[in-house]
């Protein structure tokens, strides 16, 4: 009997972020907080995008899969593993990254996956043979079976326009208002979001970061024609950027910023603007302070620009 495995292993919240970039990613629980994303044919195709520069001596590990794993590790420690056995003969390989840095690379050995799991914090349980057995990696024997496991599936994070998910419109209006408004502004948020779903214009647009299509809201942002400040000569504006506290250790704010930049580019804009009082945050992601403006209450605010917008990043 054969056994084949190719995929990413890491904390479930970290692996869930793959869904923002790759719609075909499926997260399956292992044990504790660990989970697996199996690289079936659909996910391989989505990551490789018709370019499959295989890294020797791996089975399917390409330069783009390596890049995806390294980028994923910026949200938390993660491993990529391969195993191929038939009739009791075969081998394993692994790479482990954390914060974009490679911690371990081991190819064509007998215990590579155990070594990777140890770096991920797995301790062999008393009733298990090894770390591999501890996290139940023997539950399935093929990549396809892992990808089809509905019993242990966990929703991935995804970003979607409220306009395309209007059954959540009332929930979204309440969400944005509760994070950014006050008792006098609910109708403002509700009406703005309702209009955004009806208009043929490209703005405004509101976006939700959710666990799966119908899961809990983890954050969101908006693209607006005006952000209620004196710089009415500038457009469009990024506004209402928010990530729920329990998700803030995963750098989701940067992913929302990248998504917003990509959306602005897709709409034909070569710059994106925001106003804020924060110091040092947006500069990390390529934004530049271009001056100041004034809110309708007369308060001074800093104006930032991301330019040029290209493929979702500066």
Automatic annotation (TrEMBL):
Name used for this protein in its record: N-acetyltransferase domain-containing protein
N-acetyltransferase domain mapped to chain residues: 157-310
Lineage: Bacteria, Bacillati, Bacillota, Bacilli, Bacillales
Residues in the signal sequence: none
Organism: Saccharibacillus endophyticus
